[in-house]
Amino acid sequence: MKEEQQVKTFIGTFDELKELIQESRKLFVVDFFATWVLPSKKLLPHLSEIAKEHPDVEVIRIDIDKNLEISDHYQIVSVPHVKFFKSVSNNDFIEYGFDNGCKPEIIRSKID
């Protein structure tokens, strides 16, 4: 039986996020969100669908209120805000796109 991918909520430092991405060769879809923002809440079911459709993609959420270091590093000023990351070596990863406004069809198009 195939294990179902789930959207995970990341809590940690920028260095821990960087290490997580570098150790995996997967594409990461990272949703910066806030629990009190309605569009962030509405995006979650779509992210869950995307995670199920693409088991080779890691979908994670980062609460900007609990992870200030990371949200400050990426200058996240509005949510939801989705970024895409992929490891290119053991020492680095690239951010290769983002979607501010976070329409599910745009997120899917960047994965495919």
What does it look like?
With 112 residues, this protein is of the alpha/beta class. The protein has one domain (8-111): Glutaredoxin (3-Layer(aba) Sandwich), CATH 3.40.30.10. It contains four helices and five strands; from the N terminus they run βαβαβαββα. It has a five-stranded mixed sheet. A hairpin with a 5-residue loop joins β4 and β5. The chain is globular and about 35 Å long. The two termini are 25 Å apart. The model has no long low-confidence stretch (mean pLDDT 86).
Q: Which regions have little confidence, pLDDT < 50, spanning 5+ residues?
A: none
What's the number of domains?
1
Major β-sheet strand ordering: 1-3-2-4-5
Classified in CATH, the superfamily is Glutaredoxin
Helical content class: 25-40%
Topology, please?
Blueprint: E1 8-10, H1 14-23, E2 27-33, H2 38-53, E3 57-63, H3 68-73, E4 81-87, E5 93-100, H4 104-111
Parallel strand pairs: 1-3, 2-3
Antiparallel strand pairs: 2-4, 4-5
